[in-house]
Amino acid sequence: MLERVVEDTAVNLLKLAATQLPSDVKEALTGARGLEGSEIAKGQLDAILANIELAERTSTPMCQDTGIIIFYLTVGAEFPILSEIASVLSKATKRATKEIPLRPNTVHPFTERNSGDNTGDYVPDINWEIVEGDTLKITAFPKGGGSENVCTLGMLKPGLGIKGVKKFILDTVISAGGKPCPPIILGIGIGGGSDIAMKLAKKALLRPMSRHHRNPEIAELEEEILKLANQTGIGPMGLGGDTTVLKVNVEYAHRHPASMPVGVAFQCWAARKASAEIWPDGRVEYLTDEAKR
Ligand code: SF4
Question: Which letter does DSSP use for residue 211 in this model?
């Protein structure tokens, strides 16, 4: 049954994400270790890399913080069982919590009662993109709380221009300091409205490490922000060093002339994500090759 295939795939993706860091992120961390000048920072990066290796070898989560479970879906309009997908993903989250196991992380906002299975109202968070075709692509994205706590939205005055946007981003990185468990990936969403800017910022965190924005001027902006952010000296886990940010990914949307929303999303070093594509006949391909993600 296709429902069962989707459920099993989502459980596998949550396990893959929790236990195996994508190879491009590992390479970025290893590369940063080679360039790092501070002894304390080298020690922190060594500990992070050893932790990643141990998690992979023992198939256990690389961090105790399960995060909040997010799924990004690209669904062909012809994919069967469209109306079942949300409940199947919720079921998969409950199963993954038991089977991996994952720390139950989802609490009621007022009573703080833990649901015990990483689901609840609006959780898992499911982001839909409906496209032509008949396949379903799922990306599982458990988002850690430390890095989530410092995500920030600024509704800037458009007159501040790109200089003001850069200042806001850097001020946000400096005020976050070590809280998001650096080295981080920064997702920036510029324009749209308040919700669009934050959605773009968070989705930008999924971009493969080797890929820059398609517009060369935006790609240049990404490199400039990366360089400036690494001059802050915050360093791995906030203990000082050259490696604060591994990558900056900017996305933009057209905006109201009177608004300049800027969303800044932080992703900790545990940049967990895993993707797969499912066909209506039950065939599944795990997208470990970053070009396919
Ligand atoms: S922010 Fe990331 S690295 Fe830090 S505790 Fe949460 S999941 Fe772990």
Answer: P
280 CA from centroid of ligand 1 (Å) = 36
**pLDDT per residue over 46-86, tens digit each?**
999 999 999 999 999 999 999 999 999 999 999 999 999 99
CA dihedral 286, 6, 16, 26 (to 10 degrees): 50
What is the rounded CA–CA span in Å between residue 178 and residue 238?
Answer: 4
d(CA 245, CA 268): 9
CA of residue 106 to ligand 1 center, whole Å: 15
User: In 201-269, which ranges are E strands?
Assistant: 245-255, 260-267
Tokens of 235: 């360093």
Could you read off the pLDDT of 88-111 as tens digits, one per residue? 999 999 999 999 999 999 999 999
Pocket test for ligand 1, best of 65, 69, 185, 186 (most atoms within 8 A of CB): 65
